[in-house]
Amino acid sequence: MTSHVMLFPLLVSILFFTLLLPELSLARSFDHGNLIIPSPETDGICLSVVVPHGYKCQEFEVKTEDGYILSMQRIPEGRVGGNGGNRQPVLLQHGVLMDGMTWLLNSPEQSLAFVLADSGFDVWIANTRGTRWSRRHATLNASSRAYWAWSWDELVMYDLPATIDFVFSHTGQKLDYVGHSLGTLIALASFSEGRLVDKLRSAALLCPVAYLTYMNTPIGILAARAFVGEQITNWLGMAEFNPKGAAVTSFLNALCHDPRANCYDLMTSVTGHNCCLNESTIELFLKYEPQSTSTRTMVHFAQTFRDGVLKKFDYENPIINLEHYGQHKPPVYNISNIPDNLPLFLSYGGKDSLSDVRDVQLLLDDLKFHNGDKLTVQYINDFAHADFVMGVSAKQIVYNAIIAFFNHQQS
Ligand SMILES: *[C@@H]1O[C@H](CO)[C@@H](O)[C@H](O)[C@H]1NC(C)=O
Ligand SMILES: *[C@@H]1O[C@H](CO)[C@@H](O)[C@H](O)[C@H]1NC(C)=O
Ligand SMILES: *[C@@H]1O[C@H](CO)[C@@H](O)[C@H](O)[C@H]1NC(C)=O
């Protein structure tokens, strides 16, 4: 069966985790010696999970051209201090239903943001619009429908340029980039339009997503079909996709009544079998995530699953498409237009059911004319979707390779 997925299931799985297993995350007593228990509604990411580990951390606000106010964090140096010189800036972009906390959930020795800071990088963390620390807007209120009228096209158009431009102008240096999942999709889409490539030195893409053709998780397929099915207008009328909200809960409950859905172990049935997660990290993850996105973003994923092509949001109406795009069908993001000399590092896992190996192969086919010495590809047989950001062995297997790749680039 042909299917695509990726973020979709991730979201669904996370939702379930949070909704069905609240006792798990609430009833366990945390060891305050090992786990940092912040009060997430009052402290920012710096004070919650960075400063307690002994790192310097700065909070920034960045306004997008369409008025969204995004929070960013910077870890300017490692625990042992600066190295005197100009440190190479790197921007970390999380996936859907996640936020910048993604990169900080394990110990400093295991989490990418800390590992990079301790390896001499100037680390910047992005938080996409609509997530906990990025819910303000110049004129719109996040409880209004208008605030949520965007899909990941707007992340390509506005969020990514705003954060990359900010770091570029603040440091005066070209950035290295790390994206996970949706963070790879919006980067690939940007690069395919020639955006931002003049401000980047290189990009590392973890669980790269451009196609969702081979998703084979039943729950993801059911969810995707629901989003583009006859109820599409209902979905388009729903603004915020809040995984913890009542509407999403009842949606998931309905899906789980389908005998094909396996809601017992959602994390596995959605993301694939993660080899290397720490139970304490999963608890921390459930404490902070999942985060909201727009319903339109979920519909956009479902369209990618349905159509097998990476393109802009389809209004499902030729007249409205014409108004937005000047053509009856949404324009395609053509991956083969990514500049051939942009250094890329791709890492993907054999057990990832969201970023399926066959979908990554389609992406690699699109990149077959990329300069050979500018494309590094890493395949990890045992890894699934979450291992790349939360796996206890990710440093040895993936992050060391990313650092070697970055250090190989000419400034
Ligand atoms: C946003 O709207 C909600 C509900 O209408 C209201 O309670 C809140 O005060 C508003 N926030 C701002 C910043 O205006
Ligand atoms: C898992 O996390 C706990 C709490 O942070 C830590 O004490 C333990 O060493 C971690 N286990 C591994 C294998 O990293
Ligand atoms: C993408 O661009 C290449 C050439 O740049 C072209 O051959 C190909 O047909 C395009 N693909 C799509 C889906 O438009």
Give the termini separation: 46 Å
Structural class of the secondary structure composition? Answer: alpha/beta
What proportion of the residues form beta strands (DSSP E)? 5-15%
CATH topology: Rossmann fold
Count of discrete structural domains: 1
Shape, per Cα inertia axes: globular
Radius of gyration using CA atoms only: 20 Å
Question: What is the level 1 CATH name?
Answer: Alpha Beta
Identify the CATH architecture. Answer: 3-Layer(aba) Sandwich
Helix content class? 25-40%
Order of helices and strands: HHHEEEHEEHEHEHHEHHHEHHEHEHH
Regions with pLDDT < 50 over 5+ consecutive residues? 1-41
Mean pLDDT: 84
Q: At the fourth CATH level, what is the homologous superfamily?
A: Alpha/Beta hydrolase fold, catalytic domain
Q: Output the number of helix runs.
A: 16
Task: List ligands, each type once.
Answer: 2-acetamido-2-deoxy-beta-D-glucopyranose
GO molecular function: hydrolase activity, acting on ester bonds
Protein name: Lipase
Signal peptide: 1-27
Active site: 181 (nucleophile), 352 (charge relay system), 385 (charge relay system)
Describe the structure.
Helices cover 38% and strands 14% of the residues. The protein is of the alpha/beta class. The protein has a single domain, classed as Rossmann fold, CATH 3.40.50.1820. The strands form 2 sheets. Strands 1, 2, 3, 4, 5, 6, 7, 10 and 11 form a 9-stranded mixed β-sheet that branches. A two-stranded antiparallel ribbon has the order 8-9. Helix 4 links the parallel strand 3 and strand 4. Helix 1 packs across helix 7. The longest helix has 20 residues. It is globular, with a radius of gyration of 20 Å. The termini are far apart. The chain binds 2-acetamido-2-deoxy-beta-D-glucopyranose (NAG) (3 copies). The site of one 2-acetamido-2-deoxy-beta-D-glucopyranose has 4 residues, from loops. The site of one 2-acetamido-2-deoxy-beta-D-glucopyranose (NAG) has 4 residues, from loops. Keywords: Hydrolase, Lipid degradation, Lipid metabolism, Signal. One of its GO terms (molecular function) is hydrolase activity, acting on ester bonds.
